[in-house]
Amino acid sequence: MASQTEENYLKSLFNMANEAGEVNISELAQQMQVSMPTVNSMVKTLQKNGWLIYEKYKPVILTSEGKKEAALVIRKHRLTEMFLVNKMGFGWEEVHEIAEQIEHIHAPKFFERMDEMMGHPTVDPHGSPIPDKLGRIQEVNYSTLSQCKTGQLVVLAALTNSSTEFLEFLNSRELNLGKELKILSKESYDQSMVVSFKDHASETLSEKVCDRLLVRVVG
Amino acid sequence: MASQTEENYLKSLFNMANEAGEVNISELAQQMQVSMPTVNSMVKTLQKNGWLIYEKYKPVILTSEGKKEAALVIRKHRLTEMFLVNKMGFGWEEVHEIAEQIEHIHAPKFFERMDEMMGHPTVDPHGSPIPDKLGRIQEVNYSTLSQCKTGQLVVLAALTNSSTEFLEFLNSRELNLGKELKILSKESYDQSMVVSFKDHASETLSEKVCDRLLVRVVG
DNA sequence: CAATTTTGTTAGATAGTTCTAACTTTTTAC
DNA sequence: GTAAAAAGTTAGAACTATCTAACAAAATTG
Ligand SMILES: [Mn+2]
Ligand SMILES: [Mn+2]
Ligand SMILES: [Mn+2]
Ligand SMILES: [Mn+2]
């Protein structure tokens, strides 16, 4: 059984993998906030457990068992976040830190019960998909708001970044998932966009913000 | 901040302390399911943290800081058990193992929210008192059913033992907290008691069972 | 009270997760 | 295509939580 530390590495590996499924040691070290030698010894351990492929001086690659292990931890994380928001009244900006701890609880029934109580949600409070019990993750591809054209009508569906600061910024503009936005104009100098919400005056959103908003085009 | 291991030791120390507040190393080793040298080194660590008083060859004694630390972990444990039963539909026999893990989560708001959602409960699903936010524990003294006399009317209020097996035994007899029992007779040979429940035929309860049932005498 | 048993301590080891310092290999830049 | 920079590895150490073996102190018992 994976330790808490191992579970955190697996999660990062899963999220960081490129198209080829590769992750560099230095990037992983930065992500995990530990030194490269620490990562070096941990990847050897993860390899011994059959969760990744490691060859000296090469980027590491999760095995399918590693991916499944990671996805099941991510499932617990996202179910927890959704439970905290939907059943316990937390804001979407408060739940990540708590879920970071609860994801390591070994109690299948506890997460089963959360899942049931919420009617088997498919996404977490930030729009990220919740893997199923077998660790399968449903891929959805939204566009970023930046990629959209003037005149389009879009619905905010997910985020590419869920830092507390960004979530608090979105709260301050009442930008929550499901919100309909109409793209009024795009400034070619700095890529900022002017959008209007239903029942709300128009807003200017910087390129940085537009890059972090994932939307479904509805018109 | 106490590690998970330290928190588990503190909890055991708190629960095992005799009238003088003393706990023997050998008893603690047995309780924690570790060797005596392991306990020996841990009590030195706990002493360094100011949570207990240790002198060679003497039983250890929690300091008031140690007692508070312990009580706050017990608070998290019991709030969790109550939440699992009242808000998530678990049986009282299923919650201890889960709470044993969740009690180590560092997220004051999470437990605050549980407490609020339940309207600040004062006891856990097994009738044990929930310490307050300052680690103060309200002492209640019930009698065991064994101590009661024939003819008395009592209400089941708590348990001296909450093992899964005992809880399952109580489930099988529909003996839950709040149940009114009338003591019909007591067998002097083996101390077994015959009791009748409201809306139920009479039952014989062994001495072992009667010792584990804490009751409030109501008539 | 002396012998035995029980309780507690020390020493030394292991496993997990982390570090820094020193070194090597690979990649990038001129 | 060499030199410098970046990435990765090894060695050696620390800290936590645990163990067993050996020893010492305290408690019990005849
Ligand atoms: Mn999260
Ligand atoms: Mn985590
Ligand atoms: Mn419990
Ligand atoms: Mn515990």
Automatic annotation (TrEMBL), chains A, B:
Molecular function terms, GO-annotated: DNA binding; DNA-binding transcription factor activity; protein dimerization activity; transition metal ion binding
Pfam families per UniProt: Fe_dep_repr_C, Fe_dep_repress, FeoA
Entry keywords, A to Z: DNA-binding, Transcription, Transcription regulation
Electron transport is among the record's keywords: no
Residues annotated as domain HTH dtxR-type: 1-63
Nucleotide-binding listed as a keyword: no
Domain of life: Bacteria
Family matches, as InterPro entries: DtxR_MntR_Metal-Reg (IPR050536), Fe-transptr_FeoA-like (IPR007167), Fe_dep_repressor (IPR001367), Fe_dep_repressor_sf (IPR036421), FeoA_core_dom (IPR038157), HTH_DTXR (IPR022687), Iron_dep_repressor (IPR022689), WH-like_DNA-bd_sf (IPR036388)
PROSITE patterns: HTH_DTXR
Family designation: Belongs to the DtxR/MntR family.
Protein function: In the presence of manganese, represses expression of mntH and mntS. Up-regulates expression of mntP.
Protein's UniProt name: Transcriptional regulator MntR
